[in-house]
Amino acid sequence: MAVNNATATLPPNENQGPMLIGTVIPLFGLTFIVYAARIWSRLSPRCALTVPDYIITVAMIAKTMCIGFMIAAIQDGFGRHNAHIEPANMLSISSNLLGVFMTGVATSGTARISIASLLLRFTMERTWRIVIWIVIALQVSNILTYEIVKLVQCRLVIAGQVVFKKSQCVRKTQVWALNYMNVGICMLSDLICTAMPIFVVWRLSRSVIEKSLVIVLIASALIATACGIPKIYHLVTYDFGSDDGLWHLVPEFFWCRIEEAMIIIAACAPLLKGPIERCLRRFGLPPFESQPRTLSRIGTVVFANNAEVGWPDEGQRQWSISSDVEGMTVAMTDTSEREGTKSGL
């Protein structure tokens, strides 16, 4: 009778592992395709791999390792109720999950660093550059803090000697502090790295369709930001004292993997404008072209030595400085008696 009662109180033998495999793996495949398209588009005579490309490659390697740890944990029973997991598998599940968490934070952090470093190439304003460097510093400190704390306090889990429930690395206050810090820094970075380029792109002398396309590609990082909302919800509602902790961990685990994939896609999307433009042309849409701007005279400058502006002879010459309304294009025209010459700055 006691055995029957114990059996009756067991939770159903359900398995959320196939759900994780069926959603996370296909999304990882899409992520790899987008990443490969980005790298392929950069391997041309006109382009070359830059620092952001190498950083996103590091993020992709970390994501691949994360998927490997996830598959290993699911094979050992992660996704089932704790009561239906073999005790011998609990240690391996714990060490694999720790590998997932550590590589996952590295994935999302390095992908956001790649976005920020890419933006450094498109803005010359000192204020924005300072803000971007602050974002990069926050992401680096976030990654280092998380990884160091896990390596120091979870060394017994890494060694396969204890499970999460009995390890110091999952104390409630520490989990909240690390996760809130991670989510907060990531959300702040996404908002800054989305808002800044919108102001820059909209001032360019390009067609509205092209500017809208670039803004949509850049704003795709907000999808990863939105994934942080359910992560916070499941973190707040997680029962740290439950005997079925691995089962209750699955929802937060799922949203973390989705967020990592989306931020890599968002980091690669803006650099796919060229391939997307070629696809749109095949559907009959007009090619993207620069819109000419009307220059207006805004001042005059006199050089004491003509050699300063390219004239071979000596003497003063008067030049007119013209600019468009938004100051994006500047031209200098010789207004002296000699035939006018225009040069772009």
UniProtKB/TrEMBL annotation:
Q: Name one GO cellular component term.
A: membrane
Membrane topology of this protein: Multi-pass membrane protein
Q: Which Pfam family is one of those matched by this entry?
A: Fung_rhodopsin
Q: Which residues form the Rhodopsin domain?
A: 37-277
Which keywords accompany this UniProt record? Membrane, Transmembrane, Transmembrane helix
What residue ranges carry the coiled-coil annotation?
Answer: none
Please state where this protein is localized. Membrane
Give the organism the record lists. Answer: Madurella mycetomatis
Q: Which residues cross the membrane?
A: 20-41, 53-74, 97-120, 127-146, 180-201, 213-233
Q: Where is it chiefly localized?
A: membrane
| Name this polypeptide is given | Rhodopsin domain-containing protein
Q: Which family does it belong to?
A: Belongs to the SAT4 family.
